[in-house]
Amino acid sequence: MKSIVLIGTGNVATHLFKALSNFQDFRIIQVYNYNPESLAPFPNVPVTSNPEEIFKADIYLIAVKDDAISSVSQTIKAGEGLVLHTSGSVTLEALEKHRRTGVFYPLQTFSKGKDVDFKNIPVCIEAGNINDLEILENLAREVSHKVYHITSLQRKSLHLAAVFVSNFVNHLYTEGEQICKQNDIPFEILLPLIEETAHKVTQMSPADAQTGPAKRNDKEVINAHLEQLNEQQQKIYSLLTTSIQKLHGKEL
Amino acid sequence: MKSIVLIGTGNVATHLFKALSNFQDFRIIQVYNYNPESLAPFPNVPVTSNPEEIFKADIYLIAVKDDAISSVSQTIKAGEGLVLHTSGSVTLEALEKHRRTGVFYPLQTFSKGKDVDFKNIPVCIEAGNINDLEILENLAREVSHKVYHITSLQRKSLHLAAVFVSNFVNHLYTEGEQICKQNDIPFEILLPLIEETAHKVTQMSPADAQTGPAKRNDKEVINAHLEQLNEQQQKIYSLLTTSIQKLHGKEL
Fold first, then answer.
1. pLDDT digit string, tens, across residues B166-216
2. How many CB atoms lie within 10 A of CB B18?
3. ipTM, 2 decimals?
4. What are A38-71's pLDDT values in tens digits?
5. DSSP string covering B23-57, please?
6. Strand, helix or coil at A42?
7. Does any CB of chain A come closer than 8 Å to the CB of residue B154?
8. How distant is the Cα of B156 from the closest Cα of chain A, in angstroms?
9. Which residues of B touch A221 (CB under 8 A)?
10. C-alpha R_g of chain A
11. CA-based Rg of chain B, rounded to a whole angstrom?
């Protein structure tokens, strides 16, 4: 059995805590966070807000905000323990104070209060040395069916790709919702389309799945659409239309 | 029992044909298309490619490309029959040659060879007069649980919103796939995130679901991301980041 101190109490930490609660090979023996109030939702496990009181453990799992990883890592006396962070955009070097380091990056959007099935979340792992990679692989396989070896450089690109397919996509949903609101249309009408559009790319490449007026170069529809939009929406519409046409070899 | 002549043999026509095959109150009595070869995949039903041979029917359901609707509609001698089209971006007036007109617009992305459950597809209906709206409502309820009364003006906006949440979203998936390819990362790592991002907005407003470096105004991550992108991708990244920040009240 390997012992884990979980560092952090945000969305990722909370979901990891739940996912790691029922396993025998790895056990969370303590949760640490600088703010004592944030520790209240972690019952049945020792907690501390004093870095001096952090237990000795096999693994220190840092699940805090990106810009806090380096400084939090400095406060931990890990000794021979393996220190991991969970960020998509922070390199392994942020932990360089420590002898044994690694990354355990679950690629998913976490919200407080919304359960996720961790078994289906891809976990991207990286380690400073090959022996630790094996420990990380075992830990990752405890919580997920989907484990990938990803370098710091690849992880940086993956995080960027995730911004496109999740954060930016969500913003387009928001624009769609605004257009509906302005015209007294219930946004729910769009939900089956949204889900099918996402599901489709699990079965075919998004490049092949592209449809719509931009792909067809249907100028009449494109111009009619532009007339209905405000300035900011027009910019988005024009740029994405141009981009689709460049990719599919058509000119505006 | 009301008889239907289905006009068109594309994706929408094919899926409608399947959805309407098993009902008693409405029955497709013939499929028409100008190209005889396209009629081959419609067995067990009379077909014709000669507009003079179109049967007399209660309903003529035109499921052809947007820019062909008006001209195809001219070739039909509908008499007292109800003439419908299935387009999101064409007004009711495109059918104005006919006495009784309506719109039956299923809001979904259809691909040949990929089955869809029509029961969950929202069908947006509109009719030239109130009695025909009732017939349309009955027809729509035969194939779907989700029926909405939507005016031509609303339908135009709905179609535009659909471009944002489906066509443009799919293009962002494509950009994500390209970033993965360029860095030897399997695109499948992103699929659970893509599906969860879509699923999330069935439970909360996309405006509330927004996360990411743009929302947090994390300039360090934003600048690092921009450095990794080509010119076209940088334009998209900058514009959508600005747009998210305007919406959420932050300045770059």
1. 999 999 999 999 999 999 999 999 999 999 999 999 999 999 999 899 998
2. 13
3. 0.91
4. 999 998 899 999 999 999 999 999 999 988 999 9
5. -SSEEEEEEE-S-GGGGTT-TTS-EES-GGGPPP-
6. coil
7. yes
8. 8
9. 66, 89
10. 22
11. 22
